[in-house]
Amino acid sequence: PALPAVNLGGVTLHSWAGVGFGEEPTGLLLAAIRKSAQKCANWKRCKVLVIDEISMLDGQLLDKLDELGRLLRPAPANGGQLPFGGIQVVLVGDFFQLPPVGLER
Fold first, then answer.
1. Could you tell me which residues are beta bridge partners of residue 49?
2. At what angle do helices 37-45 and 26-34 cross, to 10 degrees?
3. How far apart are CA 44 and CA 74, in angstroms?
């Protein structure tokens, strides 16, 4: 049987990340996230991020989330930058179902 995401403490990606619709430039999104201790904690404590219905996420927003992860999480000791700041990202979805949110506007 299916297990609703709410039973696992699931929330929308936009809410968890603190990006709203994610239409602003990355610098403005970063400033807004840094004003919220909870949103900063979400980014810093996360080890694995599961994004369901990936087909509904615009590629530009995914790029912004990658950049935010790199900016909000400390770089490894060797000075390199890891994708999404080192968060393991699991993308799940069916690209033949739903288009990215906002593209129909």
1. 89
2. 110
3. 8
| AA identity, residue 15 | S
Residue among 104, 101, 103 at smallest CA distance from 14: 101
Global pTM?
0.84
Task: Read off the tokens for 26.
Answer: 């990355």
Residue 104 has pLDDT above 60, yes or no: no
Q: Which long-range contacts (CB under 8 A, 24 or more apart) does 58-64 make?
A: 58/22, 58/100, 58/101, 58/102, 58/103, 59/100, 61/19, 61/22, 64/19, 64/22, 64/26, 64/29
26-67 pLDDT, tens digit per residue, is 999 999 999 999 999 999 999 999 998 898 899 999 999 999
As a whole number of angstroms, the distance between CA 33 and CA 104 comes to: 27
